[in-house]
Amino acid sequence: MSYSSDYSDAVADPEGFWRSVSKAVDWLTPPETVRQERDDGLADWFPDGWVNTSHLALDRHVDAGRGEQVALIYDSPVTGVIEHYTYRGLLDEVAQFAGLLSALGVQQGDRVIIYLPMVPEAAIAMLACARIGAIHSVVFGGFAAKELASRIDDATPNVLLTASCGIEFDQVIPYLPLVDAACDAAAHKVRHRVILQRDRLQADLRDGDLDWASAVSRTEPVGYVPLPSGHPLYILYTSGTTGKPKGVVRDHGGHAAALIQSMQRTYGAVAGDVFWAASDVGWVVGHSYIVYAPLLFGCTTVLFEGKPVRTPDAGTFWRVIETHGVNIFFTAPTAFRAIRKEDPEGLLLSKYDLSTLKRVFVAGERTDPATYHWLSQRLEKPVIDHWWQTETGWPVTGVPQGNAESLPIKVGSAGVVLPGFEVLVVDEALKPCPPFETGAVVLRLPLPPGCLPTVWRDHQRLVSAYLEDYPGFYHTGDGGYFDDEGYLFIMGRTDDVINVAGHRLSTGEMEEIVSGHNSVAECAVVGILDPDKGQVPLGLLVLKDGDGRSASEITRELVLMVRQDIGAFANFKLVIVVGRLPKTRSGKILRKTIRQIADGLSPEVPPTIDDPAILEEVKDALCNAGIGEVSRQSDG
Length: 636
Ligand code: COA
Ligand code: AMP
Hints:
Blueprint: H1 3-12, H2 14-21, E1 35-37, E2 43-45, E3 50-51, H3 53-66, E4 70-76, E5 81-86, H4 87-103, E6 111-115, H5 120-132, E7 135-138, H6 145-155, E8 159-163, E9 165-168, E10 171-174, H7 176-185, E11 192-196, E12 210-211, H8 212-217, E13 227-228, E14 232-238, E15 246-251, H9 253-265, E16 274-277, H10 284-296, E17 300-304, H11 316-324, E18 328-331, H12 333-342, E19 359-362, H13 369-379, E20 383-385, E21 397-398, E22 416-417, E23 423-426, E24 439-444, H14 459-467, E25 473-482, E26 488-493, E27 497-500, E28 503-506, H15 507-515, E29 520-530, E30 534-543, H16 551-565, E31 574-577, H17 591-598, H18 613-624
Parallel strand pairs: 4-17, 6-7, 6-8, 8-11, 11-12, 16-17, 16-18, 18-19, 19-20, 30-31
Antiparallel strand pairs: 1-2, 3-13, 4-5, 9-10, 14-15, 21-22, 23-24, 24-25, 25-26, 27-28, 29-30
Helix pairs in contact: 1-2, 3-4, 3-5, 3-10, 4-5, 6-7, 9-10, 12-13, 17-18
């Protein structure tokens, strides 16, 4: 089967295509209906099928004789631990933990918040929730208490699962103070908290808290429950344009079908391969390609608790690949930039035997050509950029590896449209742009299985955020263009979302925090280019008259506020005080123009600008701070 026939089959007969894909799922009751269209333009997939993701990821492999194959390898350079879990062993752990959740009264449809570092218990807890039909919501361990509290209030969980600490490089980060603050701040009160005590730090538990190990040891394992295909598997909160994150919902059946086919078509995996996504379970990459897809497909997944550098050095990734015989590797480009900075000649890389490695995938942000060339020349393996987002759950474009003949890789492009999606680049009037012309990247409705069916408890938010701007299409929020051979080039977000070291953040949310400071009259936060992290936030402030406090003092407080409200990974450190902000005559702040000045590009000045002189003032202020002179990072 060639890519082009695969793609055209999916466009011509989506139901036939997905019916055939769905055969790879071991349904508990196979669906008769493949697709049921909805009034909002989306579709419910396999609506009368019954399934359970935990069964698909574990039991069915054990039943099929894969019980002794390693399912999960935990490699933790920060603790020095390496552990192997076979499919049978992982199933036992998951069934036992599901027993604990049941004993705590968690029922089908109840939510469970998982705020854990990169430890196997995170994957075990996710699969245990799936087993009993509970809905997990994993919160990235870098999020501060306020973010955790807002997720507790939105998801209203019965149970919260956490650990005594995370470990970042050599720093131990106690979790309980954060979790306590979040639980105190949230209006919703969780009934039970289960705490994983780690060797590096034993936390003081509150009255009623359960110790993970002893609670699990007292329970009995439970089986999986059959669930309707559309039953929610998880809620994953993601940043949008407003301060309130959106709870992206994922279902069981469509998600399983989409991920299984992506392992074969997009990644070119075969069952038994060792698949490593170096990300975090708190992000969609971690959900889809650390936990679910590799296990659904019968691969061995690697769960890595470390960083590309300084754990202990820039050779860690190569060491993991050699030690575990990794076949397919996936991470964010920022990780390779960090490695290249510390080991520019790739001397550490050449120390390891990487012969098992077949290909590398990158996503999460644009891969700059310099990083691409550095990596592909040293590895001498295909390096494949592919593009997707939390909402889609699996790749929209890429260079598919599962066909007999591979398409060429084009540097700077995120590849061609993958079977199942229809992608258009359009102008504001919804007219398709000709090749090489940049426009909004939109996906034709209905979206395929695996994509978000709703936003948790706020379906209208899905409609207004994604479906209203371009009727009949889902608005991705990314801008880009196609070349004349159907390769998509993603040029970045057209909204207030930025990508900092592969982490998705909302500048709107940062603006809300900054404008809450007593001395700030007005502010704008934009994402500007950074050679290491891809983008970092920059805050421009206008201070209130007669406040009398120094700009440096206010800056220090603002940096701390964003760190305390969102988390250190937001990297909010650049703050510049200006006299006025550039605006249109109707009072809209010209954020795009500010960003272009800061990136050293010639700014597009809208004809509706109120006072062009302000742009010069901003340029001078940025220039004085050493921002704006460096143009786009090297594409050479
Ligand atoms: N828990 C607690 N704190 C965290 C954290 C976590 N899970 N992740 C990051 N932080 C903190 C860091 O400790 C650091 O704190 P500091 O300011 O006190 O030093 C801060 O957030 C900034 O972190 P980061 O921007 O990640 O920089 P870094 O120097 O710590 O690490 C990289 C740089 C490139 C190694 C790291 O960003 C990385 O691995 N990125 C890949 C991201 C990714 O996997 N994205 C998913 C898409 S595939
Ligand atoms: P997230 O939802 O955290 O996965 O972030 C999704 C966003 O990251 C997308 O909307 C893009 O802006 C960006 N992104 C993801 N993959 C790529 C890629 N391969 N190239 C450019 N940007 C990407």
